[in-house]
Amino acid sequence: MVQSTIHKFAIGIDYGTQSGRAVLVDLTSGEEIADHVTSYPHHVIDERLPGSDRKLPMDWALQHPDDYLEVIRVSVPAVLKVGGVPAEDVIGIGIDFTACTILPVDSHGTPLCMLDQWKHQPHSWVKLWKHHAAQPEADRLNRAAAERGEAFLPRYGGKTSSEWMFAKVWQVLDEAPEIFEAADRFLEAADWTVFQLTGRMTRNSCTAGYKALWHKKDGYPNPEYLKALDPRLEHLASTKLRGEVMPLGTSAGGLNPEMAALTGLNPGTAVAVGVIDAHAAVPAMGVVTPGKLVMAMGTSLCHMLLHEEEKLVEGMCGVVEDGIIPGYFGYEAGQNAVGDIFEWFVEEAVPAYVKERAESEGMDVHPWLEREAALYKPGETGLVALDWHNGSRSVLMDTDLSGLIIGLTLSTKPQEIYRALLESTAFGTRKIVDTFERSGIAVDKLYACGGLPQKNRLLMQIFADVTNREIVVADSKHTTALGAAMFAATAAGEAAGGYNSIVEAAKHMAKVKEETFKPIPEHVRMYEELYQAYCELHDYFGRGGNDVMKRLKAMKKL
Ligand SMILES: Nc1ncnc2c1ncn2[C@@H]1O[C@H](COP(=O)(O)OP(=O)(O)O)[C@@H](O)[C@H]1O
Ligand SMILES: O=C(CO)[C@@H](O)[C@@H](O)COP(=O)(O)O
């Protein structure tokens, strides 16, 4: 039992792709007192809607909003019980979420997919961040913005993504105008969940800035541009995207009585505005100044970096003033599949004998492949792969691109392919690091968090060798949830026992391990050569000289 008379606590809730987790955190030390994970009962909906036989089209990825509430119903009381902390000592709740994960709601904030009238229409459901079926809309949006010289476009590296708010909303309008009409608003799932907790509908500056093209001074893209896309979009910003955009670390309101009863927390407990999962990890690793690239490594990989100036960086996801830490421009870049590529290989491509051998040694397939792959030196597999199995969110920003492995022979072993896939994701990060540096934004050190640094040491060593940079690793089981709890402490404020700024919270609560991954000079040299091969393939297939991947994808759709 914790000495609750001395300490105050906050709860961070991290909404990931497959599950949500709550973590009870001691605000004095950042110690994670208790954690609980709830897997989403409906998983990622990418085949059929619940209770329906109708197959969803390719590139769709939906979620059920009630799964988010299930995390609150189950995980929050669980951490309170295990932590043995009285409700009055929990001064704040903060949530971080995948993004851009959006849903249409009616005027009461009820998701349209929860209404009988609309539940059979796929467009009424939550579109998960990795719903990529809005690529045609993203292409049209980018073309029009480039032709009109829209000021927002350079801030997003010259291209906006099919994952983001405008492309997704436009897809709804294109394919289901009745849902577009019925939607009183389109909300980020982060904001909808905060609304459930508080009864107050706000928007957070982080998802608005990185995913909905919102700018602190300019606001959303102008109505003339939106009208040029489709006249029905002209007033989108002031209608279906309306709502006060609030800065990170502020309070969206107090916990409402129903949610207090459901969770066991006190009504009125401060609820912080939501934050993107990856961005929450930055202060949680103690990164509050430039030069340190934070990598949230899991299903996908998000790269976050701070800088004093706004610079234009090819293919970056976005730069937002105060987007992560007040006083700095926060940059985000990313790879939309990392763990997902390894999972694809293990689930879909590994031969049965590998699974049998791993099982006979009492091991999971991933660690078995890792151990075998570690027996090779850089280059010894003779393979190079492109990490585009889920498209490219990096400098090319194109979700129509696909994966590639070259160098296969009749003697290629599964562990060699696994190693090549690990390496391909490190090359993808190297491309991002080089692009930042070329744009005058220093990357001195890497900071890794998320599931992968805990799971795969070989991967981390390869990242250090390929980027020739030391990697600091988070010392937290749930770094993003810790970050969310830090924003909660800031929303509650110093008077309540929290902090007055996220920088102050980071000073006391951030945690990294002492052991780091350091580049091995011999490997660095070898990878320099392999990286050149990666770049040749990257430019050949990705820079427009050769459109074979797009042609293959078009055929597949037919
Ligand atoms: N030992 C491993 N090596 C490499 N990848 C792994 C390993 N174990 C799991 N993965 C991958 O890690 C990803 C999950 O990462 P995690 O950070 O836990 O989740 P999330 O991204 O949903 O927050 C999955 O894509 C899974 O395939
Ligand atoms: O896109 C972002 C952040 O901008 C992430 O929310 C998205 O890649 C999902 O992250 P996870 O890989 O599930 O941690």
Automatic annotation (TrEMBL):
CDD domains of this UniProt entry?
ASKHA_NBD_FGGY_L-RBK
Domain (Carbohydrate kinase FGGY N-terminal) spans 10-281
Q: Identify the keywords attached in UniProt to this record, alphabetized.
A: Arabinose catabolism, ATP-binding, Carbohydrate metabolism, Kinase, Nucleotide-binding, Transferase
Top-rank taxon, per record: Bacteria
Gene Ontology cellular-component terms listed: cytoplasm
Q: Which residues form the signal peptide?
A: none
**Ranges where the Carbohydrate kinase FGGY C-terminal domain occurs:** 294-492
Q: Which GO terms describe its molecular function?
A: ATP binding; D-ribulokinase activity; ribulokinase activity
Gene Ontology biological-process entries: L-arabinose catabolic process to D-xylulose 5-phosphate
> Record's Pfam families?
FGGY_C, FGGY_N
Q: Which SUPFAM superfamilies match?
A: Actin-like ATPase domain (SSF53067)
EC number(s) in its UniProt entry? Answer: 2.7.1.16
Catalysed conversion reaction: D-ribulose + ATP = D-ribulose 5-phosphate + ADP + H(+); L-ribulose + ATP = L-ribulose 5-phosphate + ADP + H(+)
Q: Which Gene3D superfamilies did the record assign?
A: 3.30.420.40
Pathway annotation from the record = Carbohydrate degradation; L-arabinose degradation via L-ribulose; D-xylulose 5-phosphate from L-arabinose (bacterial route): step 2/3
Q: Which enzyme class?
A: transferase
Similarity remark: Belongs to the ribulokinase family.
Recorded protein name is Ribulokinase
Native organism is: Paenibacillus dendrobii
Q: Which gene encodes it?
A: araB
